Amino acid sequence: MPFNVLTSRMVEAQVMPGQTLFSQRGAMLAYRGDVRFTPSITGGQGGVRGMIGRRVANEATPLMTVEGQGTVMFGHGGHHVHVIDLVGDTLYVESDRLLAFDGSLRQGTMFLGSQGGVMGMVRGQVTGQGLFTTTLEGQGSAAVMAHGGVLELPIGPGRPVHVDPQAYVAHRGDVRNKLSTAIGWREMVGRGSGEAFQLELSGTGMVYVQASEEKL
């Protein structure tokens, strides 16, 4: 169920019978056809068990299911929207950045320490993202929100990318991430560059960076 980009802040999805789409509650802007919008009690996929896991991980953003037949336009808060198409790989993204996603994608949560060890947990605290993040895996599309548009930065062997933790939006693929620091005496006395922490992503995949250091 691909999304069509209408403007930098709006996307459109074709809803077909027998298919389900999830979106943030209240994100529908307009629609055509016979489409139903129902609050998702479990907050996405995985049933009650998945719901409990997301609530424990603080990754439980209120969602609604979108079903029927027609065309739906989505947007939220005037944020920029970026569409990511998955082809069997995994997207790592904060739940509150998900505008809408294909119901065929498997939804889960991941402990940041499993990718970045202790520094992964520190990263969660530095960025304000907490200790867990949301994962979407499989074949399908997701529309994510950001400030000021999104740049896609490919990652390959020997070509890591360093990102300001506040500008990080998401990443996909076989990617390792860790928080690196450059705290010296200048930062200690308040004369540093303001870039004391960087998020280093390495492996093979893609990282998505927004044009702002502001969280949603």
TrEMBL record:
<protein>
    <submittedName>
        <fullName>AIM24 family protein</fullName>
    </submittedName>
</protein>
<dbReference type="Pfam" id="PF01987">
    <property type="entry name" value="AIM24"/>
</dbReference>
<dbReference type="InterPro" id="IPR002838">
    <property type="entry name" value="AIM24"/>
</dbReference>
<dbReference type="InterPro" id="IPR016031">
    <property type="entry name" value="Trp_RNA-bd_attenuator-like_dom"/>
</dbReference>
<dbReference type="InterPro" id="IPR036983">
    <property type="entry name" value="AIM24_sf"/>
</dbReference>
